[in-house]
Every structure is written in structure tokens, then in C-alpha cells.
């Protein structure tokens, strides 16, 4: 196995390289074309950590894409990754509240529980059990090389690496493989985990063989990178709760207006779309463009000499108008936690049926049928 492991280590290290990223992007375009002709040949699985409220960066970066794929007819599973919350922090926090808030966001933006299965790690035991055989298929050296884990460790400051932070990419492989998903819409920071998932699937096949001789127990899952440019925070840096630069999906119109009023712009009155030289202004224009389905340069031309004030007014209107119906639905949903829980329980029940069947197959492949 040593050669194999070395090999995989190199792959992991290179999965975020420029050339590899270009290949994944090109492949994502091919997959999009295949989805348009035959959505039934795909099963999509993706998820989020319930660590805070979802914001417009999440919405335009990934959530809207999930709704689009669901509506295109692709079977979709969405994981509320509650065990990933404790990879790099001391407790689960107000977890119930966060999970329900995430459910409200999901349903408000148009994820439909009759077509999309929404579930949590902690309520699907067979998914978690896959972690044991999967961990035997990876080495600690390989795990320590994962660039996303390294970045996450760094972001915690001086915190020591927890066993779960080191191994969660393998747990994430279980997230993807328990339902035999072949397509995972993610951002590029997740590509090392996708590579790790393929390595686990391949090694499982090599080590334990097949139950159905015509196919491996686990498929090779591919990433689907979203074409959307990332929306930055109101200060022009990555939108992130800890930086206090976010607009949450669930915020009201007044709060949104106040936050946008405080956004960073620059001192030129003439508004132009120039992402390289005017990143903050251009980010706000892009946000307005996404909300109105218009070209940001065209919006800039309309604002003309309106300066930061004119820009912020246009952005506020665009955001509040686009999100008004979503927020109205969200308010109704949030007022009915019993309903949100019932949707989650139904999703968990469906995920358990799938996970139990996969674990049975894994036990058979491993000869553990007693
Ligand atoms: N790690 C992902 C994130 O931080 C969330 C996640 C958990 C996920 N399990 C997944 C994404 C499985 C895709 C597939 O955003």
C-alpha cells in the first residue's frame, strides 16, 4: 500500500494547483452539459456546517446553485454537518437554534423537501460507522498534508490539532459515499476532500472488492465547481461572520440598509466596474448585478457620478428587492420550528434508509455478516 499512499499524497497536494483547478473547471462545464441532457444519471450531495447564519456569500456562491440543480431534476441530498462543528471549537454552541435557522434558510430559498433530502450527521448512525473502515484506508501523513485542514488549523491560532480536525476529511468521504453520490457541488477549498474521497473509494474497492461484480461499492465522486464569482464582504474581504462584514439571508431590510451604508468604498465620485483597481466598489456592483440579473458595468454606468452614496442606494434596493420574498417565507418558517423539525426528521429517516443499505453492503464486502 505504501506506493499507493504516496501517490495519493501527491494527488492531494496537487488537487488545488492551478492546472488541476483548470481541469476541474473544464470538467464542471462538461458535467453541466450532461445534467442538461440527463439529470437522472447524477446524485448530488453537499452540505454546510451549522456554525452561524447563512449569508449572501453562501447564497450566491453555492445555495442558489443547489436550487438550480434540484429544479433541473437532479436527485439531491443536503447535509447539515453537525459533527463538523466540533472539528475546531470547544462545543456545539446553540446548535438546535442554528440547525433550525439553516433549515429555514434552505426552505426559504427554494430547496423542496419532496425533492431534496435534508439531514444531519448526528441522526444517521450508519453514515458515521463508515468512518471506521475508511480510516483504515488512509495514513496520518496523508491527512497531515491536506491543505484545507492545514489552513483551518492555522485559522484557530495556537489551538492544537484535534483528532477530529485531522480526520474529518475521511468523515466527509463517508458523507459523500454513504449515499453513493457522484457529484458534489463545492467551492475549491473542498477539492482536497473530494480527492481524499476518491482515494478512499478506490482503496476500498482494491482491498475488499465488490458485492455486485459490475461496479465498485463506492463510485468516484466528482466536484462541481460553481461558475459564480465569490461575493466578498462589505469591507471587500472574504465574507465571514467573524469579520462582521456579512449580510445574512435572514436579515431585515433596515438592517441590510444600515450595513450597506457602512460598507467600504473609495473616494472617486464616478462609479466604475473595475475589480482589479476598485475591489470594494466592484464587489458591491457585482452584488447588485447578481440580485438584478444585470451586468455590473451597466449598473455602474447608471450610477455614474453618484459616488459611494448612489452606489449604496442602488445596492440596498437591489438586495432588499431580491431577498424580500425569500425573507418573507423565511419569517413564516422560522415562526414554526415544529414544522422545520418535522422536515428534518423526515430527511433523517430517508438518509437512514440509504445509509443502512450501504452499511449492509460494506459489511458484506468486508465479510462481517454474522
Ligand atoms: N466541509 C464543508 C464546508 O465546510 C461542509 C461539508 C460537510 C460538505 N460534509 C460535506 C460539503 C460533504 C460537501 C460534501 O463547507
The major beta sheet can be summarized as: 3 strands, parallel
> Which percent range describes the beta-strand content?
5-15%
Q: What's the N-to-C terminus distance? A: 29 Å
> Can you count the helices?
15
Q: What structural class do you assign from the helix and strand content?
A: mainly alpha
- The gross shape turns out to be globular
Give the name of the CATH superfamily of the largest domain: HUPs
Order of secondary-structure elements: HHEHEHEHHHHHEHEHHHHH
Overall pLDDT, averaged? Answer: 94
What is the CATH topology classification name of the largest domain?
A: Rossmann fold
Assigned CATH class of the largest domain:
Alpha Beta
Per DSSP E runs of 2 or more residues, the count of β-strands stands at 5
Describe the structure in brief.
With 370 residues, the chain is mainly alpha-helical. The chain has helices at 2-14, 18-37, 56-71, 95-109, 125-129, 131-135, 140-144, 147-155, 163-177, 191-208, 253-261, 279-292, 296-303, 307-334, 337-365; strands spanning 43-48, 75-80, 116-120, 183-186, 222-225. Helix content is 56%, strand content 7%.
Polypeptide structure, described:
It is built from 15 helices and five strands. Helix 1 runs antiparallel to helix 10 (191-208), helix 9 packs across helix 10 (191-208) and helix 11 packs antiparallel against helix 14. The chain is mainly α and 370 residues long. 56% of the residues lie in helices and 7% in strands. It has helices spanning 2-14, 18-37, 56-71, 95-109, 125-129, 131-135, 140-144, 147-155, 163-177, 191-208, 253-261, 279-292, 296-303, 307-334, 337-365, and strands spanning 43-48, 75-80, 116-120, 183-186, 222-225. The radius of gyration is 22 Å and the shape is globular. It folds into two domains: 3-228 and 336-366, HUPs (Rossmann fold, 3-Layer(aba) Sandwich); 241-334, Tyrosyl-Transfer RNA Synthetase (Orthogonal Bundle), CATH 1.10.240. The structure holds tryptophan. Tryptophan binds at residues 45-49, 79, 81, 84, 172, 175-176, 184, 186, 190.
Amino acid at each position: 500500500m505504501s506506493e499507493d499512499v504516496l501517490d495519493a499524497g501527491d494527488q492531494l497536494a496537487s488537487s488545488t494547483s492551478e492546472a488541476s483547478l483548470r481541469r476541474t473547471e473544464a470538467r464542471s462545464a462538461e458535467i453541466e452539459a450532461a445534467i442538461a441532457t440527463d439529470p437522472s444519471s447524477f446524485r448530488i450531495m453537499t452540505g454546510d456546517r451549522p456554525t452561524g447564519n447563512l449569508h449572501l456569500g453562501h447564497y450566491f456562491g453555492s445555495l442558489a446553485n443547489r436550487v438550480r440543480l434540484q429544479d433541473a431534476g437532479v436527485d439531491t441530498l443536503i447535509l447539515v454537518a453537525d459533527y463538523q462543528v466540533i472539528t475546531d471549537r470547544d462545543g456545539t454552541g446553540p446548535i438546535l437554534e442554528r440547525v433550525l435557522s439553516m433549515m429555514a434558510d434552505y426552505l426559504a430559498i427554494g430547496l423542496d423537501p419532496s425533492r431534496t433530502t435534508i439531514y444531519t450527521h448526528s441522526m444517521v448512525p450508519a453514515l458515521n460507522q463508515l468512518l471506521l473502515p475508511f480510516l483504515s484506508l488512509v495514513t496520518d501523513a496523508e491527512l497531515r498534508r491536506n491543505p484545507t485542514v492545514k489552513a483551518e488549523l492555522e485559522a484557530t491560532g495556537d489551538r492544537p490539532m484535534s483528532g477530529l480536525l485531522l480526520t474529518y476529511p475521511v468523515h466527509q468521504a463517508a458523507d459523500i459515499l454513504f449515499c453513493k453520490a457522484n457529484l458534489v457541488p463545492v467551492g475549491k477549498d473542498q477539492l482536497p476532500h473530494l480527492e481524499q474521497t476518491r482515494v478512499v473509494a478506490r482503496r476500498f474497492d482494491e482491498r475488499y472488492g465488490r458485492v455486485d461484480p459490475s461496479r465498485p461499492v463506492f463510485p468516484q465522486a466528482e466536484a462541481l465547481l460553481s461558475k459564480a464569482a465569490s461575493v466578498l464582504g462589505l469591507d471587500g474581504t472574504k465574507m465571514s461572520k467573524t469579520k462582521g462584514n456579512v449580510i445574512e439571508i435572514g436579515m431585515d431590510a433596515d438592517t441590510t440598509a444600515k450595513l450597506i451604508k457602512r460598507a467600504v468604498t473609495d473616494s472617486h465620485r464616478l462609479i466604475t466596474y473595475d475589480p482589479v483597481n476598485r475591489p470594494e466598489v466592484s464587489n458591491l456592483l457585482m452584488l447588485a448585478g447578481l440580485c438584478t440579473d444585470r451586468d455590473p458595468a451597466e449598473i455602474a454606468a447608471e450610477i455614474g457620478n453618484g459616488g459611494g452614496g448612489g452606489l449604496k442606494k442602488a445596492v440596498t434596493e437591489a438586495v432588499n428587492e431580491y431577498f424580500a420574498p425569500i425573507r418573507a417565507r423565511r419569517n413564516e418558517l422560522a415562526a414554526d420550528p415544529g414544522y422545520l423539525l418535522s422536515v428534518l426528521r423526515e430527511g433523517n429517516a430517508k438518509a437512514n434508509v440509504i445509509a443502512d443499505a450501504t452499511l449492509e453492503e460494506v459489511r458484506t464486502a468486508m465479510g462481517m455478516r454474522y
